[in-house]
Amino acid sequence: MFCDEILELIEPMAAGELEADERITGHLTSCARCASALEAARRVDRLLRERPIARPELQFTSRTLARIRRDRWRREQLVDAGFNAAVVLATCAVLAAIWVMLHRAGLDAVGNEAVRLIGGTLADVAHRVAPSLPLYAAAVALLASALGIWWWAERDAPW
After folding, report:
1. Structural domain includes residue 73
2. What per-residue confidence (pLDDT) applies to 36?
3. DSSP H helical segments within 15-159, as ranges?
4. Are 76 and 68 in contact (CB under 8 A)?
5. Residues near 39 by Cβ (< 8 Å), separated by ≥ 6?
6. How many domains does the chain have?
7. Which pLDDT belongs to residue 112?
8. Which of 3, 17, 22, 75 could be bridged to 12 by S-S, CB 3.0 to 4.6 A?
């Protein structure tokens, strides 16, 4: 066996997870470097086993998980804000490009006339609907009160 093969097996042998066969034992007796590496690994393993295990603080896990969730939420908020800003900028760029194209083609006058036409139509509809608004408001109030009474009656039902 070669030293690099033995050096890969040193940690499992020091931890007792791997038994040395004849080839490994033969190499360790003939190679002082590998034998000293195994002895050093065994010393480190022994020191680690003798060292007392520190107990975590009370509620360590819950506080750590809460902190992780809070940090993740903050990162998601930053990503969301960046995405929203990118969407707003892209929308502004598209609207500006459309406005420039309409202006260059002379179609902005058509747009102004369309806005005036729609505004006049909406005003006409508002004048026609205005007398019926109290009736619509009463109907909405009646429907809301009926739904409220229904909810109140059903909230304690056993089913």
Report:
1. no
2. 93
3. 22-30, 32-50, 60-105, 108-129, 133-154
4. no
5. none
6. 2
7. 77
8. 17
Indicate whether 115 belongs to any domain.
yes
| Residue 147 shares a structural domain with residue 95 | yes
- Tell me how far apart the alpha carbons of residues 18 and 142 are, in angstroms, rounded to a whole number: 82
Backbone angles phi, psi at 30, to 5 degrees: -95, -15
Which residue, chain included where needed, has tokens 């009463």? 138
| pLDDT digits 0-9 by tens, 84-124 | 999 999 999 999 998 888 778 777 777 778 888 898 999 99
Distances (CA, A) of 87 to 9, 75, 77, 82: 56, 18, 15, 9
Angle at which helix 32-50 crosses helix 22-30, to 10 degrees, equals: 110
Is residue 156 situated within a structural domain? no
Task: State the Cα–Cα distance between residues 34 and 21, nearest whole angstrom.
Answer: 15
For CA atoms 76, 81, 84, 86, the dihedral sign is negative
Query: 95 is in which domain, residue-wise?
Result: 91-151
Q: Which residues of the chain fall short of a pLDDT of 50?
A: none
Residues 46 and 95 in one domain: no
> What is the spatial distance between Cα 129 and Cα 8, in angstroms, rounded to a whole number?
87
